Automatic annotation (TrEMBL):
Highest taxon of source: Bacteria
Organism: Mucilaginibacter mali
Protein name: Lipoprotein
Length: 151
């Protein structure tokens, strides 16, 4: 009888700890990769990724020279703000990054970023701490990761 009571107590304690778990049990965390959106404009404010703009950048020839990130483009009319523009989308990794963006054979730019991993609730998240394009630091649009680059 004594062994039965001990067995039942151990079993009850095991069930108690198993059923309590943590507040994050069963929470599916899908942290998307950090994405930045770049909007390239000329001095007249025209979209430099649009083929109808004089001296536009050929999006098929643009590439990242030293990064594993991908370049993709969003067509006109799909993402606010500035739905009328074509936008470049860049994925980045955590930490400090220096990347070289080749826009044309003669135009190469440098992008500095710093993403920090944070935890809010049960899931990890990434926050952009710094965005610098060539020598210009962008502080007003870091939170929404949407940058207008004037060339």
């Amino acid at each position: 009888m004594k062994y039965l009571k001990i067995t039942l107590i151990v079993f009850a304690i095991a069930i108690f700890f198993y059923s309590c778990g943590t507040k994050c049990d069963g929470v599916a965390c899908t942290t998307s990769p950090p994405v930045m959106i770049l909007d390239f404009r000329d001095k007249a404010g025209r979209d430099l990724l649009n083929p109808t703009t004089p001296f536009h950048y050929d999006t098929l020839r643009m590439k990242l020279l030293n990064a594993s990130g991908l370049i993709s483009f969003i067509k006109q009319g799909t993402v606010a703000p500035n739905k009328e523009r074509i936008k470049m989308v860049l994925n980045w990794s955590m930490g400090e990054n220096i990347t070289y963006l080749k826009l044309t054979d003669n135009d190469q730019d440098t992008i500095f970023t710093n993403y920090q991993k944070t935890t809010a609730g049960c899931c990890a998240n990434y926050q952009l701490q710094l965005f610098k394009y060539n020598t210009k630091t962008y502080t007003d649009s870091v939170a929404n990761r949407y940058f207008t680059i004037n060339k």
